Amino acid sequence: MPYSLLRPLLFALDAETAHHLTLKALKTMQRIGLAGAPAPRPAACARRVMGVDFPNPVGLAAGLDKNGAYIDALAALGFGFIEVGTVTPRPQPGNPRPRLFRIREAEAVVNRMGFNNYGVDRLVDNVRRADYRGVLGINIGKNFDTPIERAADDYLHCLRKVYALASYVTVNISSPNTKNLRQLQEAGELENLLGALKTEQRRLADQHGKYVPLALKIAPDLDGAQVGVIAGLLRKHGIDAVIATNTTLARDGVAGLPHGTEAGGLSGAPLTQRSTAIVRQLGNALGGSLPIIGVGGIMSGADAEQKITAGASLVQLYTGLVYRGPRLVAECVDTLCGEAVRSEG
C-alpha cells in the first residue's frame, strides 16, 4: 500500500505509537520476503568518505532505530548507510511520555525522548544478529545521570563496546534533551573529550587491527564563532567527520501552531535552512580538511542537493520519512546521482 494512503492512519495515532508500529511492520515485511516493497531500490552511486565506501550518499540518521533492532528492515529501503542509536552505557527509559509530537502544518516534529534505549550491550547483541553487512554507524551518548565532568567515561565505554562492529562511530554531544549535554560543545569541554576519544581510538585500532572513523554530531543552535572553534578542534584532534546537525531549540516556523511550544528539539522543514547554514559555515571553516554529513530538514531531493552544495559529502534522513515515506530515499539518491548513474548505464 502506498505510504500516502497509510499516512492518515498512522497520523491518527500518537506519534510514538505510530513510530513503533511502523518499525514492526517493516520488520515483518522483511521477514516474509517483501523487503524493499515500500519504496523502489535506488541505483548505486558510490562515495568514499572517511576512508569508507558508501554505496550511495543517502543515509538514515540516528534516532529512528535506537537499539539496532530493525537494521535489516531499514536497509531494505535503499539507504547507502544506516546509523543506529543514540545508545548509552546503561539502559534508561528517557523522559516521560508524551515526548514526541507532530506539527503537521509545518511538516515538523518535536521530540524530547531523552536517549531512551536498552543500553549498549543490547545494541551490540542486536547488531551481531543482523544480516546487514553494509555501512553501519553507531551513535553513542552519555547516561542522563552521569555528571558532565565524567561524560568522557560514558563515551569511552560505549566506544570500546561498539568499535569492532561499527563502520564509523558518532559522538552525540548535541541532543537538547539530556541536561547539560550541549555544554560539551564548549571549547574546554570539547578539547578534553576529543583528546580522550582520539587516544582511545588509536588504542582500539591497534587492538582490533582496523581503523574505525569518529564523527562528531553538533547542534544547529551555534553562532559563527562557536562553529569556528569546533572546526579548529576537529582538525587539531584528527576527528574524521562532523555531522551537522541535531535538532534545534528555536521555534522558527512553528509559532502559534499546535504543539509548537512543546519542550524538546525541533526537526523537519523548519530546520532545513538553519541546518544548511551550519553545513556551509563548517565547509568554509574546515576548507575540505574533513567531510561533513548533512542532516536536518531534508524533505525532498532538492533539500538533499542543497546540503551537498553547501559542503556536505553525505546526507541523512529522519523526519522527512515521517511526512514523505520511504520513497524519499530513492528521490534523494536520484537527485544526487541519478544523472551520473544513468550516464554510466
Describe this protein's structure.
The chain is an alpha/beta fold and 345 residues long. The chain has one domain (3-337): TIM Barrel, CATH 3.20.20.70. It is built from 11 helices and 13 strands. It has an 8-stranded parallel beta barrel with strand order 3-4-7-8-9-10-12-13, surrounded by 5 helices. Mean pLDDT is 94; it is low at 340-345.
Provide the spatial order of strands within the biggest beta sheet: 3-4-7-8-9-10-12-13
CATH-derived architecture: Alpha-Beta Barrel
**Whole-number tally of structural domains:** 1
For the secondary structure, the number of strands is 13
Structural class call reads: alpha/beta
Helical coverage, percent range: 40-55%
- Overall mean pLDDT stands at 94
Full CATH superfamily name: Aldolase class I
Largest sheet: 8 strands, parallel, barrel
- What's the tally of helices? 11
Low-pLDDT stretches: 340-345
Q: Rough shape?
A: globular
* Assigned CATH class: Alpha Beta
Strand content: 15-25%
Radius of gyration: 19 Å
N-to-C CA distance? 30 Å
What is the fold-level CATH name, i.e. the topology? TIM Barrel
| Oligomer status | single chain
Order of SSEs: HHEEEHEEEHEHEHEHEEHEHEHH
Provide key terms for this protein.
345 residues; TIM Barrel; 11 helices; 40% helix; 16% strand; alpha/beta; single chain
Quick recap:
The protein is built from 11 helices and 13 strands.
